[in-house]
Amino acid sequence: MKYDVDAIKREVESVYADVLAMRRHLHRNPELSEEEVETSRFIQAALDQMGVPYEKEVAGHGVLATIEGKNKHYGVGIRADIDALPIAEKTDTPYKSTKEGVMHACGHDLHTAILLGTAMVLQKIKEDLPGCVRLIFQPSEETIGGAKQMIAAGALENPPIASVIGLHVEPLLDVGKVCLYPRVMNAASCEFYVTVTGEACHGARPMDGIDPLLPSCAMVLALQSIITRKIAPMDAALITVGSFVSGQKNNVIPGETNFSGIIRTLKLEHRAFIKEEIERICVSTAQAYGATCEVRFKDSYPTLENHPELYPIVKGATQECIGAENVEICETPNLTTDDFAYFCHDAKGFYYNIGAKKLDAQKAYPLHSDYFDPDEACIKTGILTEVMSVLKILEAESK
Fewer CB near the terminus (10 Å): N or C of the chain? Predict the structure, then answer.
C-alpha cells in the first residue's frame, strides 16, 4: 500500500499542539520508576479520548494499547518508557518539574508524548492499516528493566507482535535529524559488589589485624588489566568502579572494605567472561593479603542489537519523510544501556535516536543533566518517523 507522506506530515502538524501540551504536563509532573501512577492515568485518559482500547497496570504501571487494522492476527509494536529520574531540575522553563528532586532528564516525557501523538495519527487511518499496532507504555526503564516485565505480561501477544520499534531523544544531535545504528547500538551491563573482610585493629599496631583496604586498592587497579590484557583491543568493554567505602576513623584500621561498579560490553559473551575474571582477581588478591572476599553480581540489560531486516525498512522510511540528508548512519555503538534490548531479544527490534539539540543553543546539555532542555520540535520528527516506520513494516510483513 502506498502512503501519502505529505498527508502524514499534515496529520503530524495537526496534532502537534496537543502533543506539546501533553509533553509539558508530563514534564511538570515526573514520577520515579515503579511509582508512575499519575503518569499511567494520564496516558489512559489520552487513549480514552482517542477511543483506543488498552490494558492498564501491566507489569506495574504499564499500559498496553492496540490499534486494530484490517488484519487482526498480526501487528507491530512501538515502545515508549514513562519514568523519570531522581534529579533536581535547574532549568528555568515555565513547565519545569514541580516535584522536588525528580525530573524527566532522560526525555521519557518526550517519548511518551511522541507515542501518544503517533497513536492519534494511526487511529485516524486505522481502517487502512494492514495489521495492528501495539502501543507499549513501559514503566521502570531506569531501574528494574520494565521491558522484561512487560514482555512477560504479554506485550508481544494477542495478536503476535513480530517487530517492535522505539526511539530515544539525543540532545547532542541537531533537531530534525535521526541517527540509525545498523546493528549493535547499546552495551550489555552488569553491576558488581565486592566486600573484603579483614580484622580491625589500632592504626598504630597494624600487625594486630588484617587491613582490608590494601587488597581492595590492589583489586581496583588490577581490574583494569582485564580490559587491557584479556579483551581484544578492537572490542569495546569497560569496567567502572564508582563507589569505594572503607572505615570511619583515621587512626583505625577497619575490618571491612566495600566497593562496587559496573561492567559494560558490546558482546554479550564478554560479560560472562569479565565476571569470572573479576571474581578470580578479587578472591586471589584477598587471599594474598590474608583477607577474605565476597563478590556479588547483578546482571542488567543485555546488548541492544537492531535487527538486520528492519534496518533497511526504517532507513527508507525515515529518509522518505525527513530527507536522506537528515538521516545519519552510526557505525560505532556506545556503551550506554537501555532495556529496549529485551524487545530486541524477544522480537525483531529496532531502536534509533532523534535529534533534540536546539540549533541556536550556546551549549547543549546531555541526557541525565539537571539542565537538560531539549528542542520540543523533536516531537514532530518522532511522530513522523514512528508513523512512517510502522506503516512500512506493516506493509512488508503483510506480504
Answer: C
